[in-house]
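Researcher: Good morning. I'm working through a list of sequences from a screen, and I'd like to move beyond sequence-only analysis. For each chain I'm collecting a predicted structure so we can compare shapes side by side. This is the next one on the list. No need for commentary yet; just the structure.
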Amino acid sequence: MIGFYTCDVLVVGAGPAGSIAASIVAKKGFKTILCEEHKMVGRPCHCTGKLSVHAFREFNLPKDSILNSVKAAKLYSPGGFKLDIRKDSVDSYIIDRELFDSRLSDLACSRGADLLLRTRVYDVEREFETHVILKARKDGSPVRLRSRLIIDAEGATPILPGKFGLRPVSDLLLGVQYEISGVQFESPDSVELYFNRIFAPGFFAWVVPLSECRARVGLCVRRSMATSPINQYIDRFIRMLIDRGRLRDFKVEKVLAGVEPAGPYISPSYSDNIMVVGDSAGHVKPTSGGGIYFGLKAAKLAGETAVKCLDKMNVSKWQLRVYEDEWVRAFGRELNVTFLLRRILNSLTDDEVDRLIRKMSEWDIKSVVERYGDTAYQSKVIFPLIPRFLKRSLEKLDDISLLARIAAEGFLALIT
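Model: Good morning. Structure tokens for this chain:
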């Protein structure tokens, strides 16, 4: 016996983006199903949980999920040089992702959405002009889900976009993270970023403080650049922290692992009867891996687009295309700029990255970053940086060569 569910909107994935989209549509009275493959929302967790203050200003988010606030960052070059950057006000919050996700799904349910746990969608059975029937398994048993519109929020490795002819994200970040007690901090309001291909090829490692002696310690590697299993990279990073006296009598309390899209974002992010949001659509900054905030923004726009299209009784791609127009206008530039920056960074050797971070300190570029820097909107700092970067780098022949190298890689990234 195959179970059957019918709705106006099926949201696949009960992460933050999925829950926000479901909340918006359900609040308008449309029958909404929020589908989650795991037995609990928010588990297993795959995220560092660093979320911009912008998100809490723009959305009704659960403040009881905040564990710590940060206003500074320490960048460690491959050679061990440290660059301190500090803002006058809080830039981001560190959140409990399990609680955060659970609260948002509760909000969606309170507004009328039905939550289906342990339900994994895996294929399209039939497509019609006015609706779609999807194949799924709930508690191991086959079910069918009939919906007029799908909002796909599956995460970094979605199944559905390809079923609708949409291009998937081409590369992934593989991540692993430990929650550790017994961490020695210089300042508990500062995240630490470590750049070194030995333990984080194509990305970086981090220490994110949760309290005075607890932290999330982890890293990501770009799948296309990795040459070793992920556990070997985190072992190298942990050994380095031990050697530097950062971990003494420490205890690993939790181990998390997951994947994130490495870019570029997918376009189009819609087709007949479907819109793709968040990690599924590649709405993640390639420089930092941050995706919650832009995922929430995309989900809001998808929910609002869904309401308008359902009111018109038209969920064709010609009507849904406004969703992509809106999210590109909202944060498309950030994704493009940060993808370019990531391409440049990944082309540099560890020695060149070391020189770059040292030069940022010598040229007092950090003062520009402190004034204009914003982890959510990183492009804001680029244009103020360019004049100072050019002026100072042209003073020495060695610096000119580094500038030429970066410029050449930037040009190649733009044309390929």
